[in-house]
Amino acid sequence: MDASELEARLGVSVTTFDATPDTSGYLRRQIPDAPHGSFAVANELTAARGRTGSTWAAPPGGVWSSTLLYPDLDPAQVGRLTVAGGVAACEMARSFDVDARLKWPNDVVVDRDGDRYKLAGVLTEAIVDAVPVVGKPVGDVFDNPEELEAVVMGIGVNADLDPSDLDTDRAVTTLRRELGELVDRQTVAARLHERLLACADGVETDDGFPDVLDRWREHAVTLGERVRVETGEETIRGTATGVSATGALLVETERGRREVTDGECESLRRDD
Known about the structure:
This protein is α+β, with helices and mostly antiparallel strands. 24% of the residues lie in helices and 33% in strands. Strand 8 and strand 9 (131-134) form a beta hairpin.
């Protein structure tokens, strides 16, 4: 990809890599000198981190990106940015006429023939009191966090490659597979970043967040489904009914409503 062309279009600092261990790690090391909106995007990742802390590699042909933000948000509101990232990635895919949907907490998926295929993922990393908090609520790490210094938003898009190129045991798809043709990764990166900055700016205010949240709900497959959420401490079963002002999933269970801030969410059949 052409960094100078992306910088001219997006108006932000852009760093491109043919291959790099992790775009989020690169941007984290630039704090606080790199400006808001700084964008790092790679063709291939060799040692990225997932939401649970596991390492993984991403093959050539994707748009593996991270964006540095200095949001005007309380540390407890970082979940709003996960909502923003999901909406941005989903609407980017839909701009290519792909019927992309959102699966809580951080997946963009395509439903086809009764199955669900992952197209993109979002990972929010908050920097609080100089400590990175990856893929979980800040309150799970700090009792009284004082300052949200920065947020690194990692978004990976399965773009110009085939599903068989991805080393995973889950059902996946790619933009190339959905469109039946080669995909311009430069265009994917530009559309994604434009939408992310707009959505991230919107969720900073109590007036703007409801609009972004409504767009999340519009594209969500999770809402209305019976789900099982594994939090690491317990299993929660019920019907997903909404998303809170902090990005938590609201689940109606037999014992009442639960607000789930983190976990692995799986859709259930009606008889499960």
